[in-house]
Amino acid sequence: MFKILKYSFYDLMRSRWSYVYFLFYLALGFVLLFLNNDVSKAVITLMNVIIVLVPLIGTIFGVMYFYNSKEFTELLLALPIKRSSIFTGQYLGVAGSLTLSLVMGLGIPFIVYGLFRSNAIWDFTLLLVVGAFLTLIFTALSFNIALSNENKIKGFGYAVLLWLFFAVIYDGLFLLSLIIFEDYPLDKYSLVATMLNPVDLSRTLILLKLDISALMGYTGAVFKSFFGTRSGFFISIFMLILWTLIPLYNLIRKANKKDF
After folding, report:
1. What is residue 78's DSSP assignment?
2. Where are the domains of the chain?
3. What is the pLDDT of residues 124-143, one digit of tens each?
């Protein structure tokens, strides 16, 4: 598995798209810090970009890599190697390279602008951790989609639809349900609904860590009473871990049953 992971990682690190991804975050970090000259404000601005862009890139890269390396995967399947090792290695290689590009692309400009002397170091660390989780989650989901669809066009279509659902449609349905059932107590419902969407959960964690939950109104007070506590924070991280492990388990299960 580690040999396959190493090959997938180096293969993607040599790809021009990995450099584009890295340079985009590098330029974005320097531009934001140049305009704001304040690390804390730059972190708040970056949150909106990370929450939307990282899942999209993870989804597209995952589907693209799976289809482009299909012939190599079939060659590996003909060898006496466990299927779980093949697909886990490829998945970790893709997710690892994307995470490295994200961390280095944002880390370099913030370090140059004095991140370690700033009070925002923990906020920035949480931002990178959340970005890494979103990369792992949506790369795993994209691998599941690609494995379930032989047709590339369908695979790409479903992948984009998945990202659109979690990033946009889910929020619309969530707000609509809050309006329809506004006469009922919705505190617990709001918490559960937030944890069922990794994008919303990540956004809520960062907003509360940045102490700007007042922007969320009454809902912010409810979230702060739960996610703002130490136990709530660890439950949220546990949910992000589950969001990572369940698609990966499903990927291995599908791969073991699939007739290539």
Report:
1. T
2. 2-257
3. 888 999 999 999 999 999 99
